[in-house]
Amino acid sequence: MIPNTLRAAADARGFRIGAAADPGLLEMEPEYASTLCGQFNMLTPENVMKSGPIHPASDRYEFGPADALMRFARRHDMQVRGHTLVWHNQMADWLSHRSWTPGEWRSRMEEHIAAVAGRYAGQIAAWDVVNEAIADDGSLRASPWLKGIGPTYLESAFRAAHQADPAARLFYNDYGAEGLGAKSDGVLHLVRKLLDRDVPIHGVGLQMHVELNDYPLPGQVADNMERLGRLGLEVQITELDVRLPQPCSTAALERQAQLYGDILDAGLAAPNCTALTLWGVSDRHSWVPGFFHGWDHALVFDAEYRPKPAYHALLKRLVQAGCKDRPGEQGASPPPS
Ligand code: 9MR
Prior knowledge:
Blueprint: H1 6-13, E1 16-21, H2 24-28, H3 30-39, E2 42-45, H4 51-54, H5 64-75, E3 79-86, H6 93-96, H7 102-119, E4 126-131, H8 144-149, H9 153-164, E5 169-174, H10 182-196, E6 203-206, E7 209-211, H11 218-230, E8 234-245, H12 250-269, E9 273-278, H13 288-291, E10 295-296, H14 309-320
Parallel strand pairs: 1-2, 1-9, 2-3, 3-4, 4-5, 5-6, 6-8, 7-8, 8-9
Antiparallel strand pairs: 8-10
Helix pairs in contact: 1-14, 7-9, 11-12, 12-14
Bound molecules: ligand 9MR.
């Protein structure tokens, strides 16, 4: 039987297809929950595991919303990508509005990682340990973490995450570093240095928030995946969306479908690419219109949860794709004979 959902097609190929998720919508919108578990075999908490929401006061954690997503994932046999332990955005005020000593910054970071990664130890397939630490020119971003601790904060974060959850695959995650260029060279340099120092890092997340007429060439994405693979690293496309100018035309939806398909093809062809995650379930709740004035329609289901041409493009590629042995993916189904 030909699989007729993204999830069934991905399962049959031993591939992970994910969506960023908001636990607040699970009960409110039955269609949200049924699309999430019916079409995807992995989820990423879009916001609720970030340091501000999950650690709102120095001595208080708010695990309820993240726990709800973990329960949902368990009930529906979905993998979870943890997102994210160390980032310069969505930090709690108590942390970012005080001047700590370098030693205090480090112990705050390590305590946070121990508490959050420790709580979900054994249940998270992959953690985005550090998010967006590289600037556009490839240098280290002047984040509060770099200013507070110095460049060793990255190494410390990965070591702390590994200690808290030895089973999780640990990722460095960034945007604008999907193809080839100064930023992806910077990411390559960073992860190579970490590997040289025996830091437990297993993969690189390529976020891929792109717009219809400005995106990394799929061939360059493939080359970037390959050079990361030569370092022994896994890659995942972690936050894909393709925004369209409003109002959107049929032609734009068709071009969007082509791009979604080409990006998935690059991932399926790379032996070290194990997953592709969309940054949201449907256009009803995407972050895009709130951040990019005049842009919308970035996901593969429309605001009424109807599949768009991009959905059919993904499904077709998943159904056509050949089965491969993928790192970190045990028990993948054999190819249908
Ligand atoms: O989708 C997220 C949005 O709801 C938040 O308001 C925003 C805050 O910065 O973060 C968005 O998710 C980001 C992700 O965590 C990291 N990569 C970029 C994503 C889009 O901004």
